[in-house]
Design goal:
Largest sheet: 5 strands, parallel
Strand order of the largest sheet: 3-2-1-4-5
CATH superfamily: HUPs
Low-confidence stretches: none
Structural class: alpha/beta
Mean pLDDT: 87
CATH topology: Rossmann fold
Helix content: 40-55%
Amino acid sequence: MKILLPVNHSEISSRIIEGLAERIHWLPPGTVTLLHVVDMDRLAYRMIPDFQLEMVSAQAAEAGSVLLEKQAALLREAGFTVELRMETGAPREVIPRIANDENFALLVLGRRSSGEVRDVLFGSVTNHALHRVRCPVLLF
């Protein structure tokens, strides 16, 4: 089974990893692809010189690599086969595209509430993905 698990630096992302590790026996054998998306639009600010934006981008990529390795270690320790992947772009666009184009059997996402009306039930990335993927979605 091909499972796509987008991760970021949030608390819910860590809880998803822990939850999957505890529930490995619920899932058929397969591979979990941990995906971290670096959102360059959120990193870019007006009036910031290109060299500084490149530096911020490089730091974001390094932080993403560290995050992926840390989360992968927890899943591997639990018995999962794990692949790591980092992409750039808007997570709300990148996640559904990868899930659909690469025929993942399951997408695992987290719920969050940010206090805004539109995000009370689901985070905007989660809500966007729910309406655009063809595979089943497991919400934590």
